[in-house]
Amino acid sequence: MRAQAPNDSASHGPAPTTSSSEYRFADIAWGSPADTVKAALQREGIAFITTDSLGDLTFAGAIFQRKAAVIASMIDGRLARTVVGFEKMSRSTLPLYRAIKRELIAKYGKPTKSTEVFLPPYYEGDGNEEGAFLTRKAVFLSRWRSAQTGERLSLLIDERPGVIVVYESAAWPNDAARKPKSRRN
Hints:
The chain is α+β, with helices and mostly antiparallel strands.
């Protein structure tokens, strides 16, 4: 069965798992080997691009009807973290962030922590919201954490500005320490 975004049957591309206590992209189990990750994302219409020198897998495709890149971080050949970066489009960053946040709230409930703030001289509605992100004068970050499993999910706007969703296994913080520093974040 093809994964769909919660409450949006018209969306194309993978959605998080249906279990409210597990944060997984495209319902791929943590610890899955590379072949399983590749096959699952291929079924979702997300194309495998390459495996880097650290064994991490890169994919590209459409998610929530938007071009996106997916990086599956592998530790000892097993899935430990998934990062989804959406294509940057002028003046669409904030609406995309909010749309994805609504989908994640519908799926998992309210975030454990959420910060959405513009710093002076910027403010929402000034017509220069993108400039606030470019100059790091805005912070939009929502985080979910499962007390049961220790898994984490983050939604943020970075300085490109672009929208990023990060799914992390409970083992990721320890596993990340074993990755070279250039790839920890």
